[in-house]
Amino acid sequence: MQADPSDLVQRAQQGDQAAFEALYRAHVGRVYALCLRLTADPVRAEELTQDAFVRAWERLASFRGESAFSSWLYRLTVNVVFLAQRASRRRALRVFTTHDPAALERPSDGSGTAAEQLDLERAMAALPPGARQVFVLHDVQGYRHHEIAELTGIAVGTSKAQLFRARRLLREALSR
Amino acid sequence: MMCGDREVQLNEYVDGTLAAGARALVETHLAQCAGCREAVAELRALLAGAAALPKSIEPGRDLWAPITARIVQRATWNVRRAFWRGALAAAATLVIGFALYRLLPSSPAHDRREERGWVAVQADYARATDDLAAAFATERDRLEPATLALLERNLGVIDAAIRESRDALARDPGNIELRGLFAAAARQKVELLRWATRAAT
Questions:
Q1: CB B89, CB B132: distance < 8 Å
Q2: How far apart are CA B117 and CA B173, in angstroms?
Q3: Is the domain of B189 the same as that of B106?
Q4: Residue numbers of the domain that contains B9
Q5: N or C, which end of chain A has less CB nearby within 10 Å?
Q6: Which residues of chain A does B199 touch, with a Cβ-Cβ cutoff of 8 Å?
Q7: Residue B15 CA to chain centroid, in angstroms?
Q8: Which of A67, A73, A83, A57 is nearest to A151 (CA)?
C-alpha cells in the first residue's frame, strides 16, 4: 500500500529520511526529466537532480502545503537549474544532438509514437538554450509566461519571443 | 508557408491568448491563406506532441545514495557550524558584558576606566556586534522573507536608538541615564542578533 503523500511530507519535515526517500522515489523521474530537458545534458541533469533533492530536504520546513508538494518541488527544481546556470554562465552548455541520442531513448508513457517523440526530444535538445528552456517550461511543463518570467528572471515579452522562436525552429527541424 | 508578419498572431491564436476581435481577424485570414492554415496545423501538432511527451524519465542510475550522503554531510557540517556560532555568540556576549561593565559608574577603579572614555566601550560593542552580524549575514537567506523583513525593521529601530544615545553621550559623556540607554540598546541588539543567528542555522 502506498503511503499518503501529505503524511510522507509531514514525516520528512520532521527529519524522517525514509519518508523523504519515498518522496524521492515518487518524483525523481519527473525532476530528472525536467532537468534533462532544460539542460540537454544527461550528466548535468543528474547533478542538478541531486541538487534539487538536497535543496528540497533543506527547504522542507518552508513547504506549507499551499500547493501540491509536486508543484513546489518542480518549481524548486527549475530554480535550482537556473541558479546553477547563472552561477556557471561562463561554462558553455553542452548540447547533444546526434552525439548522445541514447540518453533520451526512454520508454514512452504518453500518446504518439515513440519515434515521433524521440524526433521531438532530439530537436528540442538541439535548440539554443534560451529557446529550449522556455519551450520546455511552457509547452511541455505547462507554465504560463508570467510564471516563466518569475522563475527565470526574463521579461514576459522575452519569454514569448523565445517560445515562438523555438516553435519555428522545431517546425523546421521536424519537417526536414 | 505562413505569411512573414503573422508568426506572433498565429502563435497567440493556437495558444488561445488572442482577444475575440483579433481572433476573428485571424480566422478570416486563415480562410483565405493556405500557408497560414498549414502553419497553424503544424503548430497544433507540435503543441500536442510536446504535451504528450513522457513526463517522467528515470535517470541512468539511482541517485538516492549520493543525495543521502550529501544530506548527512550537510547535517554534520551544520552541527559543527552551530557549535562555532554558539561559541562565537558566547564570546560576543562576554565582550559586551565587559563593555557594559565599563559603563557602570561606581568604584574609583571604574572611574579610571571611564576616563578612557566611552569610545573604547563603543569599539568593544561594535566588534562584538560586527562579529555576530557577519555570522548572521552568511545565513540570513535561510530565514523566511517576512521574518527577515521584521528582523531588519527591528534592527533599524535599535540602531536608531544606539545612534541617538551615542550622539547624546557625545554631547554629555558623563550622563548616567544616557549610558543606561546606550547599554540597554546595545544589549537588545546583541540579543536580537544572537536569536537571528540561531534561527538561521
A1: yes
A2: 8
A3: yes
A4: 4-51
A5: N
A6: none
A7: 37
A8: A83
Question: Does one domain contain both B28 and B124?
Answer: no
Same domain for B102 and B32: no
Q: Which residues of A touch B57 (CB under 8 A)?
A: 29, 32-33, 36, 104, 106
Domain boundaries, chain A: 1-94, 112-176
The shortest C-alpha distance from A89 to chain B (Å) reads 22
Domain A1-94 matching CATH 3.30.70.141: the answer reads no
Domain assignment of residue B99, yes or no: yes
Select, from the ranges A161-175, B93-107, B131-145, the one with the highest average predicted confidence (pLDDT).
Answer: A161-175
pLDDT in tens, A5-53: 778 999 998 888 899 999 999 999 999 999 999 999 999 999 999 999 9
Domain shared by B104 and B179, yes or no: yes
Question: Is residue B17 domain-shared with residue B98, that is, in the same domain?
Answer: no
Which residue carries 497567440 as its cell? Answer: B12
Domain count, chain B: 2
Quick one: fold of A112-176?
Arc Repressor Mutant, subunit A (1.10.10)
3 state SS of B6 = helix
Exposure string (b/e) for A32-71, b if CB count within 10 Å is 16 or more? bbbbbbbbbbbebbbebbbbbbbbbbeebeebeeeeebee
Do B51 and A139 count as a contact with CB atoms less than 8 A apart? Answer: yes
- Is the C-alpha dihedral spanning B59, B62, B68, B74 positive or negative? negative
Q: Using the beta-carbon criterion (under 8 Å), do B55 and A109 form an inter-chain contact?
A: yes
Cβ–Cβ gap A17/B68 under 8 Å: yes
User: In degrees, to the nearest 5, what angle opens at C-alpha B112 toward C-alphas B109 and B115?
Assistant: 150
- For the stretch A121-145, pLDDT in tens is 999 999 999 999 999 999 999 999 9
Q: Give the mean model confidence (pLDDT) for residues B69-89.
A: 68
**Beta-carbon separation of B42 and A45 below 8 A:** no
Which residue has better confidence, A159 or B182?
A: A159
Residues of chain A in contact with residue B60, where contact means CB-CB under 8 angstroms, are 42, 46, 103
Whether B114 is in a domain gets the answer yes
